[in-house]
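Encode chain A's predicted structure.
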Amino acid sequence: MLKRVLIVGASGFLGKELYKAFKLNTYYETYGTYFKNEMNSFEYLSMMQLDSIKSTFDKVRPNIVIITSSLTNVEYCEANKDEAYEINVIGIKNIVGFCKKYNCRVVYISTEYVFDGKNGPYDEEDAEFPINYYGKTKLEAEKIIKSEIKDYLIARTTVIYGWDLNSKNFIMQLINNLSKNKSMKIPNDQISSPTYCNDLSMIIEKSCDKDIKGVINVVGNDVIDRYRFAVRAAEILELNKSLLIPVKTISLGQIASRPLNAGLKVDKLISLLKIKPLGIDEGLKNVKLNHDKYKVEEAYGE
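Encoded structure for chain A:
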């Protein structure tokens, strides 16, 4: 029997890749929602409007709901706490209420920002202690899911990158700036686990195939600082790495604190799924293939 999967936020960067991954599996009927970026094949859904959520759930009647939607701009969340809470906590609570009513399995995309970044990389059992408001709202949403839903998967990830002209992910910003000969200040004291978006989507789809439950870290296989990641990206993408300027996080004048010594361990993921997530070299080489293809198409006006 086919399972109906509803991807909330399927028009976003990660949502689009998840939609593709589930569409390829004939075991699922896959549906997506949009909020701002209208897409004809997706349902309109506002997490803040119960009627909107009800309409979508009544139409799709999902077995699995994957929640990718959230306010992810860390600086914006810090400066606009009411709005961040409304979207990242109340919005999730609204969705979860209907998931409970329809007895859905819930897959929630969370973050390494639930940790303070003092003793990384972290495993799934480490104590959470977010140091910025974005991290606090994501942890609050995790707690709602744990308390309300029996069948859930919380996938913690970080620094999601990949090829998408409509995305402002770190690698697309890097390609944009370096291609225009613009320098970039990159923190060399923020350590994390860069995650290739397509790989993340595939792993989440496999986790649903195997009915994996609980909390699991789904990140790339390398733990590395942002500057070294950027340098490696510039090397693989054949861009000018001398335009990358290493700086300390404190010098950037950001209002939200960042976990510095973070990153996530993937031992549990490897043990449960027998899959080793891609490291930065493999992920970035895939980005390069898409970047090269785009340059050819652009040159020939395709």
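The longest strand covers residues 28-34.
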